[in-house]
Amino acid sequence: MPKVLISDKMDPQAAQIFRDRGVEVDEITGLKPDELIKIIGQYDGLAIRSATKVTKEIIDAATNLKAIGRAGIGVDNVDIPYASAKGIVVMNTPFGNSITTAEHAIALIFALARQLPEADASTQAGKWEKNRFMGVEVTNKTLGLIGAGNIGSIVASRALGLKMKVAAYDPFLTPERAIEMGVEKVTLDELLAKADFITLHTPLTDQTRNILSAENLAKTKKGVRIVNCARGGLIDEAALKAGLDNGHIAGAALDVFAVEPATESPLFGTPNFISTPHLGASTSEAQVNVALQVAEQLSDYLMTGGVTNALNMPSLSAEEAPKVKPYLALAEKLGSLVGQLAHDNLTNISVEVEGSAAELNIKPLTGAVLAGIMRRYSDTVNMVNAPFLAKERGIDVREVRHDREGDYHSLLRVTVETSRGARSVAGTLFGNASPRLVELFGIKVEADLDGRMLYINNNDSPGFIGSVGSILGSAGINIGTFHLGRREAGGEAILLLSVDEEVPQELMRKIEALPNVRLVRSLKF
Ligand SMILES: NC(=O)C1=CN([C@@H]2O[C@H](COP(=O)(O)OP(=O)(O)OC[C@H]3O[C@@H](n4cnc5c(N)ncnc54)[C@H](O)[C@@H]3O)[C@@H](O)[C@H]2O)C=CC1
Ligand SMILES: O=C(O)CCC(=O)C(=O)O
């Protein structure tokens, strides 16, 4: 039974879903990194929010980990490239808390416009300072959105409802989408120059880090009010403080800080500065949404192989997964066969599907073929990290889908470019379930690729099979299955044997020394 650790505070329904789906679950929150390192090795899945930092050290200790599920959107607390290299799927829940976070941004816009926290503190202190708190209307003001994805577009729709004008800077926003959203697509400089309010809704990346730098803050309109409910690190906090102090910036509200938890900051106590402790996603509705979603996604992956909202591998629905699973096994076996027989460094790989296999999502099949091939380099490779490893090695991968149906009702073919030209292997599913090799380097040969096998490439000649049988038999090696194929009588032939134990080197050499042998390889599946 797979085992999952919930390491951040999460709605209790998450644990229940894991149990209902047959996944064992532990909930241990507030672990320090060294405490997490000690226990993470026993888990197949890890469910987190933002407090757990999944670093290289944690991943190295996570020897059984197959999937990390982030109950939320931002995944900057997970070292995704390292997780990918280790074959760990990383998933998030991209929509569960977006309305809630957008609403928090709107709440902070109003809180700034009317100085609500300071007015509240003053009133409750018995001061009744009616003249001190002169606010501004948001109607007809320009809201500058930096980042117009899920949350940014919800903020835009709410702001338009408040009769604000919305200008958006997002290099990936198409003109059509901007029209659909009812926003003006602008450059960052245009946004800085015209916005009365600025809200940020981008992930933290190398491109967005410090996007509101001292230089950019200086380009903003005097009296601008700034809200950040996305990630600390998007704003230069020292420059923000300076802008508030010198009156250029009329107000700023941060839900997120460069260092969290932010228990101290030069910004604290600055007039017109409001802060919340990363509460953007903290509503009961959002927390139920993300907890249910992450538990369902992780359970699906661990129990059925279904992949949803993964950031480092193609999606595979829980409905698709059972259909794709036998093809994944076939794909991996064919890849492994190619990898074990290849002489050269492979630079070009093509994965072709036809018949009913062509109706499936080809991406996971390619991942499995690559995993099979790349296993010659590393035994920790799987369909998550194989595409990354292949890319790293400069391998060009091509996917081809044929609608035609050939001799088999479904066929998967893997072709690689070698110094001897293109070499391909093909297989099908027997009874829609059992992977079966049907063609090897252009020679028809049917075989189950299973356990230990011996591949012999020879020139077809009488008595050859008997000679191989007697070499193995005299050494007490039992042959399980025997598969033959040849191009034409007397021409190139293939012998694939399954054997009950590893064939020792000296026997391999004896077989290699037989007349008419071209190549002998020991294979393992
Ligand atoms: N405060 C909180 O509790 C929460 C914070 N968040 C943060 O909000 C962020 C945004 O979430 P979503 O809208 O769901 O993400 P999303 O992926 O739907 O949208 C992000 C947008 O940023 C844009 N973008 C990327 N690079 C950019 C750049 N250099 N300049 C301008 N725009 C750029 C993208 O094109 C995309 O449209 C998340 O990455 C997360 O960090 C999300 C949920 C809760
Ligand atoms: O889990 C949380 O409270 C933070 C949510 C968040 O920052 C996110 O989803 O990106």
Q: How many beta-strand elements? A: 22
Regions with pLDDT < 50 over 5+ consecutive residues? none
CATH architecture assignment name of the largest domain:
3-Layer(aba) Sandwich
Report on the biggest sheet. 7 strands, parallel
Summarize the amount of helix as a percent range.
25-40%
Q: Give the amount of beta strand, in percent.
A: 15-25%
**Radius of gyration using CA atoms only:** 30 Å
CATH class membership of the largest domain: Alpha Beta
What does this structure look like?
With 525 residues, the protein is an alpha/beta fold. The chain has helices spanning 13-20, 33-39, 56-61, 80-85, 98-113, 116-124, 150-161, 175-181, 188-194, 214-218, 237-245, 284-304, 320-341, 362-374, 386-392, 464-474, 505-512; strands at residues 3-6, 24-27, 45-48, 67-70, 89-91, 142-146, 165-169, 184-185, 197-200, 224-228, 249-254, 273-275, 348-355, 396-402, 410-418, 421-430, 434-440, 443-447, 452-459, 479-486, 492-499, 517-524. Helix 1 packs parallel to helix 12 (284-304) and helix 5 crosses helix 7 (150-161). The protein is elongated. The chain starts with a strand and ends with a strand. The model has no long low-confidence stretch (mean pLDDT 94). 2-oxoglutaric acid (AKG) binds next to loops. GO terms for molecular function: NAD binding; phosphoglycerate dehydrogenase activity. Keywords: Amino-acid biosynthesis, NAD, Oxidoreductase, Serine biosynthesis. It catalyses: (R)-2-hydroxyglutarate + NAD(+) = 2-oxoglutarate + NADH + H(+); (2R)-3-phosphoglycerate + NAD(+) = 3-phosphooxypyruvate + NADH + H(+).
